[in-house]
Specification:
Blueprint (H helix, E strand, L loop, with lengths): L2 E6 L5 E5 L20 E3 L10 H8 L12 H15 L5 H11 L4 H7 L3 H5 L6 H4 L1
Length: 132
């Protein structure tokens, strides 16, 4: 009997729910944080084993860095690719930032919307714009 991963579209928090196979798709699911029903199922990441050399090679493509200063969507795509290539579990805040970037929010707007972001991601107090 598996746990199913969800994200609440109201409070933007991630949570998982334990359901039997018979319950899945039948039993209503609500956010465990805010109780909202506006949720979406998250598909877990699939990991592919790569050597360190292969991961670094895929991240070393200079074309990935073109136009990132003016395009938050491209920055979000690049960060998502880097996050998946690292092969490590990243904090949920990382996913939230990438989602916001891909939606077109600027790093400055994100920093204002999530004031404690640098603390939760472990970055210095200089702000997200300086670190990304």
């Amino acid at each position: 009997m598996p746990n199913y991963d969800y994200v609440c579209l109201d409070c933007r928090k991630r949570f998982d729910v334990f359901l039997t196979y018979q319950e899945y798709g039948v039993k209503p699911v609500s956010c465990s944080h805010c109780g909202g029903a506006n949720i979406r199922r998250r598909v877990p990441r699939v990991r592919v084993l790569k050597s360190d050399e292969q991961r670094l090679e895929s991240l070393g493509d200079p074309s990935m860095l073109e136009g990132l200063d003016d395009d938050p969507v491209a920055l979000g795509r690049m960060m998502r690719k880097m996050g998946s290539e690292l092969g490590e579990d990243l904090p949920p805040e990382f996913g939230d930032v990438v989602d916001r970037l891909e939606a077109g929010q600027s790093p400055e707007e994100i920093e204002k919307a999530i004031p404690d972001l640098s603390d939760s991601l472990g970055t210095d107090a200089g702000g997200m714009g300086d670190d990304f």
